[in-house]
């Protein structure tokens, strides 16, 4: 059951990366950026079979701590990525440099929320 939940989580993360990743890069760099993200994701997949040997030498707790640390580090780093909802994807590097993650995205839905 745990393996099934883990596989679901990995597949979900891969799909989110495939959707959110291209939105982070301007058009002229999009394929390189997505390619670099894919390479780093595949490095994790390549390293996974070697964890059995690492666990035999250093103990299972070491491997679990390593995976946990990398996961928490990834979650922290993702918090610094810009929100892309309601923004146009930049076409040039200059447009990407002008767009900051501190700007508020434009509201396309015209939905008003009431404060209670």
UniProtKB/TrEMBL annotation:
Assigned GO CC terms: membrane
Lineage: Eukaryota, Metazoa, Ecdysozoa, Arthropoda, Chelicerata
Cited InterPro entries: MFS_trans_sf
Transmembrane segments: 60-81
SUPFAM superfamilies according to UniProt: MFS general substrate transporter
Protein known as: Major facilitator superfamily (MFS) profile domain-containing protein
Lipid bilayer topology: Multi-pass membrane protein
Family matches, as PANTHER family: SOLUTE CARRIER FAMILY 22 MEMBER
Protein's cellular compartments: Membrane
Organism: Medioppia subpectinata
Keywords from the UniProt entry: Membrane, Transmembrane, Transmembrane helix
Domain of life: Eukaryota
Primary location: membrane
